[in-house]
Amino acid sequence: MKKVESFELDHDQVTAPYIRKAKVMSVNPEYPECVISKFDVRFAQPNQKFVPNDALHTLEHLFATLMRKYTEELIDISPMGCRTGFYFIFAGDQPVESVAGLVRKVLTEIVAFDGNIPGAARKECGNYLEHDLESAKIWAQRFLEVSETDLINIYRAK
Questions:
Q1: Where residue 25 sits, what CATH number does that domain have?
Q2: Residue 113 predicted with pLDDT over 80
Q3: How far apart are CA 59 and CA 30, in angstroms?
Q4: Residue 121 in 3-state DSSP?
Q5: Residue 158: inside a domain, yes or no?
Q6: Which of 29, 69, 100, 108 has its CA 20 to 30 A from that of 117?
Q7: Is 72 part of any domain?
Q8: Whole-prediction pTM
């Protein structure tokens, strides 16, 4: 059985928040140059804290909308089941520094966001009642308190 990359990470050794390039893989063996990259964008310290569902859901909607203003390479953003962060999937082999810059730019917008949460109407969302913009802003601000350089160093002192 193939090992799951994220299960190989020692979750007791990392220091959140952080951004980690988790994997680069070819999407078709006939075209090895056609790759995608997966990033682990961690907001909460594993096994110690987690992002409440309503804040995680709101962050997902805001990231999915706002990030696309700055890149056409974003394929998907998925919340982690453990609720400590997100997986971001991009077309191509994206540098972690570029992704960190994008994430910080969007989080800055989220902290200042004052409007309706995109895609949060009943017809657009499968759980439209579970959103919390103010809590999402708090989590965004916590992430921004870490320097961009430190965000890509996942083994900082706790």
A1: 3.30.1360.80
A2: yes
A3: 36
A4: coil
A5: no
A6: 100
A7: yes
A8: 0.94
